Amino acid sequence: MVRLHVKHGEQSQFLYDTTVQVDVSVLVDELLHLYNGRLKIERICSEMEYLAKHGTLLPYNMQGLTDEQIIELKLKDEWAERCIPSGGATFCKDDIGRRNGQAPSTKMAEVLIKTINEAKANINKKLVDANSVMTKEIIKDTLNELRGAVTIVYPMGLPPHDPIKMEFDGEEDLSGTQASLSVIPADQGSLWWAAKEMQLNKKLSDYVGKNEKTKIVVKLQKRGTGPPGREPVVTEDEKKQMMLQAYRRQEDLKKLQEVEDDNHLNSQWADSNMLKRQFQGLNNISWRPGKNM
């Protein structure tokens, strides 16, 4: 299997195993599915953390309003009475006014937080350093685990406007959000290797040869954004090692210089008592046991 180290920009994303016979068009679709799937999991985890702290999302016409304004405008969150967490709710006000403050109990919140942490570990970018590959099954299973945790805590479901439910249903609207800048639409992906864009009508073997034991670094880009930056000749870890070696050599040279600077102190001309011994005739005297003076 060919192992791909997939990057977006300068950041590592994941490892992926494929074959040299795969069509580039198919490969791009597979990589985009994993890349966008990881982003979806990250967005869901982020919203679930707020769900565990402050309950379900308020209707759009109530978000950002103070309690006084809500009363004055006679607004009501009808979904709050339907979407009650298991074991009852604990009030925890959302200071930014997005969620209704009806948070799940501590026990139920722990279920959400534990699942969130496990999901983040499944898609962590550090898995690249651990030489662990990403697969469609990992993305699918992680999404199912998140969905299952939400169902346990909210058996009656979430409001239809809650972004967590919209993500699970594939109805998320990211327009105008920061998250939309990271997503690469399925029909706008391009794959680059060795500063060359891989053409969709070719096979991977047309670029890397027929060796199935190859490992290469590829970069996902939005089509039309131009070529990504070249890979540095020296990696960040290699750069750190080089700097460490240079520092050690510099310290060794300093110590050597100090030794050379002090060597004159052992010379006869540097002995402050040399002249006194000369007058007393005490120079060049050697003695050993049994020798007659």
Helix content: 25-40%
Any idea what the shape is? flat
Unreliably modeled segments: none
Total helical elements: 8
Task: Describe the sheet with the most strands.
Answer: 5 strands, mixed
Q: What is the number of strand segments?
A: 7
What strand order characterises the main sheet?
2-1-7-5-6
Mean of residue pLDDT values: 88
Strand percentage lies at 5-15%
Round the Cα radius of gyration to an integer and report it: 34 Å
Order of helices and strands: EEHHEEHHHEEHEHH
End-to-end gap:
88 Å
**Protein structure class:** alpha+beta
What assembly state would you assign to the polypeptide chains in this entry? single chain
Task: Furnish the topology, listing elements before pairings.
Blueprint: E1 2-8, E2 11-18, H1 24-54, H2 67-72, E3 89-91, E4 102-104, H3 106-122, H4 136-153, H5 163-168, E5 189-193, E6 196-197, H6 205-208, E7 215-222, H7 236-262, H8 274-280
Parallel strand pairs: 1-7
Antiparallel strand pairs: 1-2, 3-4, 5-6, 5-7
Helix pairs in contact: 1-3, 1-4, 3-4
Protein model, in words:
By secondary structure, the protein is of the alpha+beta class. The chain has eight helices and seven strands, in the order ββααββαααββαβαα. The protein is flat and about 115 Å long. The termini are far apart.
